[in-house]
Prior knowledge:
CATH superfamily: L,D-transpeptidase catalytic domain-like
Largest sheet: 9 strands, mixed
Number of helices: 3
Number of strands: 11
Number of domains: 1
Structural class: mainly beta
Distance between the termini: 13 Å
Helix content: under 10%
Amino acid sequence: MYSLQRAPDVYVEDDDYEYGRPLARPGRNARSDEDYDRPTAPGRPRQLGPRRGRATAALPADADPAYSTAENYDDEIDWSEQTRAAVADPTGQKPGTITVDTRARKLYLSLGGGRAMEYGIGVGRQGFGWKGVAHVGRKAYWPGWTPPKDMLLRRPDLPDHMEGGIENPLGARALYLFKGSRDTLFRIHGTNEPDTIGKAVSSGCIRMLNSDVVDLYRRVSKGARVVVL
């Protein structure tokens, strides 16, 4: 039986960097150089793109090209910064299942044989949390980020779109949570703010250190069950 461990309630102001929409039409892995510098709506920051000169990367076979950036920023990840550890599995779930304990700020990937990988996470702040059962419906490599319309209304300083990269708030990888064929708009993703791990700061998504989310991405397949407590 899985028992929750209460973590301190730490609520801080959040930049509202969440969700994520397609980078471009299916089949386009990146925008042109002209698109990077094209003005957006009046008063809105220009679209933010990857730095010029970055080498093109072959996307992993399971990465959705419409949501991924075909440029490799893995060499900019701080690989020494990690929270993951192999532990006794406290969830009782089947192998391959992700369990998110929002109160304890922990994510578990059940491995079988009574073992699990444990990762530290940041979670949704009060009023923005989400709980339920979903599955991984999409995976993205250095995901791009497009704020939803309601977020742009709250934050007029945000860009209309930001290509993937080390400064992107979705970080190095993203797992998109679906219920049936419906995108829940909640994600498990990396971060450009590692000091937020262990806190309740997001708009409902689950954030991880970039080194940890890369490790989780490698271990998880599309269709994996996700339980958010």
